[in-house]
Every structure is written in structure tokens, then in C-alpha cells.
């Protein structure tokens, strides 16, 4: 019986998904404050930079995870595209975890 708990690069992918989702949330709140309430643009200034870094980090980790965990091409494409709409990386990570795509296959003896 195998476990669906992420290991190694799978854990890094989970962290990248969470960071990307949290910075998206901060950026959305910052955009609300800037454009709707017109109170401050500090949220956009700060979270825009953080999200830019998180986005690049997520894409790099996704490609590394896809190579290391031997994802099919469609899973890699979906994972990369999930970073574009807000907050899609978090449900994607949950789905990949349930499918067992974040664990490495046991080494052959």
C-alpha cells in the first residue's frame, strides 16, 4: 500500500502552491484597496513584487516536479497554467495529492 503524502519535491510543490495562492490573495486585497476604496496602493506595491517572485518560483518548482515525478505532459501543462488565474494552484495541489502525483515511485530492487 502506498501513501499519498508528498515527499521531497512533492512537498516543495505543495509549498510553492500555497505561497503562490497567498500572494495572489494579498495582491487581490491590495487591488481592492487601491482601485475600489482608493485608500492606499501599498498592497499592490508590496504584493505585486512578492507575487511576481512567487509566480516565478512556482513555475520553476512545477517544471522540476514534473521532471522528477514523471508527470504526463497534460499534468505539467495544467500545473503551469494554474498559476495564471487567481487561487487555482491550491485546489490543483489538492487534486494532484489525491491522485498520488506528488509522491515518488519506490525504487526498483
Automatic annotation (TrEMBL):
Membrane topology reported for the UniProt record: Multi-pass membrane protein
Pfam families xrefs: DUF3817
Keywords associated with the record: Cell membrane, Membrane, Transmembrane, Transmembrane helix
Family matches, as InterPro entries: DUF3817_TM (IPR023845)
Compartments reported by the entry: Cell membrane
Keyword Lyase recorded: no
Location of the DUF3817 domain: 12-98
Primary localization: membrane
The UniProt record lists the keyword Transmembrane: yes
Top-level taxon of origin: Bacteria
Segments crossing the lipid bilayer: 12-33, 45-67, 73-96
PANTHER family referenced in this protein's UniProt entry, alphabetically: MEMBRANE PROTEIN, MEMBRANE PROTEIN-RELATED
Name under which the protein is recorded: DUF3817 domain-containing protein
Species whose genome carries this gene: Massilia rubra
